[in-house]
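Page 47, continued from p. 46.
Same chain as before, 302 aa.
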Amino acid sequence: MFDLAQLAALAAVHRRGSFDLAAAELHVTPSAISQRLKALEETAGTLLIKRGQPCSATPAGLRMIRHHDEVTLLERTLAADLPWLSPRAATLRIAVNADSLATWVIPALAATEGFLFDLVIDDQDVSQDWLKRGEVAAAITAHPVPLQGCDTVALGSLRYRATASPDYMARWMPQGVTLASLAAAPALTFSDKDRLQDSWVARQISRIEGNRTARAKKMAFPTHRLASSQAFVDACLAGLGWGMNPEALVRPYLEDGRLIEMVADTALDVALHWQFARLTAPALAGLTREIRAAAAKVLIAP
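Result:
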């Protein structure tokens, strides 16, 4: 019904944000991109791209981009069933949280052939939204309940520990973790979506006040903002702040004493799930298998 080259132009403009970058990705001229998009909008009878800086798809455009991605993946399944066809590498867009990317996802991607991966990096609490909008084919998410038309696989839990350097603790928390020191000592926050430090602090408030069953309490605390998993570790090592780091990343530093757990045995476990559209599940079967295998080596079993 729709021309795949035109759909590819639509997807590229939305994902790259401009006609020029879309043209470079598809190895055509910006004029060709414009012509393809105009023809597609005429066929669809509606606006598909909001022109601007950056360009972005309308709701109708997002639905057609999802259709493009589904068709591309289904073609790969067809090629696998018909050996005389030569499938081209398909661009696969998935949403991944930064800490999973830094600790266990890369081996799964490297073990899966036939895809060019386009990774959307976002917090596990909101990555499902990308799948809901149809902007990705799959997502690593904290949400266990699948969206309509999707399947989900429990992967296990990524364990976090509140860590800081010995010098940092001596400077900011000489008496240990107290309400006063938590309110004054600088922390590390990945982004406005990052709630790990808040969750850990709430638990410490309950512990200090002697009420482990109390509803989580919020406390304002100073924080640096560093949108990088490795920068979190480096900042902790340098004494810039304290932060919730994946145990897999900081285990060597905990073992050699360069980092310490601020309060012993206060890990936070974040359950993760692999969620994907049911329609394209056969095309993603290989990646799903590798995702599960890689997760099993690092995550705590569900």
